[in-house]
Predict the structure.
Amino acid sequence: MDILIFAGIILAGLILILIEIFLIPGTSIAGIAGTGFLIYANYYAFDNFGLLGGYITLAAILILGFILIRRVMRSRTLDKVALKKNINSTVDNSAEKSIKVGDTGISTTRLALIGHADINGVNVEVNLQQAF
């Protein structure tokens, strides 16, 4: 019975790591919990099965993790979720081209390096080149 619980802890840890990598990227509860499960499984193996059992468990976790990540990456499941559309549109900035260096205007937001200003009736984003 202990072996089934031990295998379940390892499997739960690997599944949570896969969820962290492919479904919820970033540092989240799934990744922390999965890592915790795998560390506990390794600790349990070293404590109860001895040095050889601990190293075998560590190797099995690494190999099984590599195989699972490889299988998920090669499966067609990720193709269904992946973004395939390219964005080719651009922002219309033709009004900004009428503004030249040296034109004056009124700041509409705080100019802390970057802000917005109304220059020649056009609201544009400006950046501060030199502090006075």
